[in-house]
Write a structure and sequence with these properties.
By secondary structure, the chain is α+β, with helices and mostly antiparallel strands. The protein has 6 helices and 6 strands. Strands 1-6-5-4-3-2 form a 6-stranded antiparallel β-sheet, with no helix packed on it. The longest helix has 44 residues, at 2-45. Pfam families: PepSY_TM_like_2.
Length: 210
């Protein structure tokens, strides 16, 4: 029995070392993200009590006649980008990057919806007169961070970050659970606390959520 115990010690030490290594690596990777998501979890939970003060910017411009002819016509399209020349002119005249953004073309106008975290924006181009209208609304930093929490209008790169962050959290949690298992013999409260963490939200959901 003593020989078996001695033979098992190197293996136990190996896995303990590996678990500690992956636990601290995953914790380092997801530390800031966990703080961000925890803080915005509170702000999202109390969104009705947190007053937002939207700030709106409205701009107008006139598209030059040569560029207006490029947009003239009565054909209707869904999800078609502006011609490069028009997008470049808007970028210089209105300090607005619309390159590659897809809009809805009707016989009367072209409408581009440009939602973003913490706000919204749109651009309208009259295909008859060439009048441009742009409006941007910002709802503040809390709304911005809340939208990042939800991945709302944040683009595919942020979506990939959330996936990688979630995977790091899974590694952090699983290695933490395995470390608890390896130290449970010396800490009698380990499994009661783990069970409480499982049972408490389940009981609250069954009793108070209908």
């Amino acid at each position: 029995m003593r020989m078996q115990g001695r033979q098992g010690q190197p293996e136990h030490a190996f896995w303990l070392k590996q678990l500690h290594r992956w636990h601290w690596i995953s914790s380092a990777l997801c530390l800031i993200g966990m703080l961000l998501f925890a803080a915005t979890g509170i702000t999202l939970n109390h969104a009705a009590q947190i007053e937002a003060k939207p700030q709106t910017v409205h701009r107008e411009a006139q598209l030059p006649a040569p560029l207006l002819r490029v947009l003239s016509g009565e054909e209707e399209h869904k999800g078609v980008a502006l011609p490069a020349a028009v997008a470049d002119w808007i970028g210089h005249a209105m300090q607005l990057d619309v390159s590659g953004r897809k809009g809805d073309w009707s016989a009367d106008d072209i409408y581009l919806s440009m939602p973003r975290p913490g706000g919204d924006a749109w651009l309208s181009i009259d295909r008859v007169t060439g009048k441009l209208e742009y409006e941007r609304t910002a709802r503040g930093w809390i709304s911005y961070l809340n939208d990042l929490h939800k991945g709302r209008n944040a683009g595919p790169v942020w979506g990939w970050f959330i996936d990688v962050f979630a995977l790091a959290c899974v590694v952090f949690s699983v290695t933490g659970l395995l470390l608890l298992k390896m130290h449970a013999a010396q800490r009698g409260a380990t499994w009661p606390l783990v069970a409480l963490g499982l049972v408490l939200p389940l009981v609250l959901a069954l009793i108070f959520i209908h």
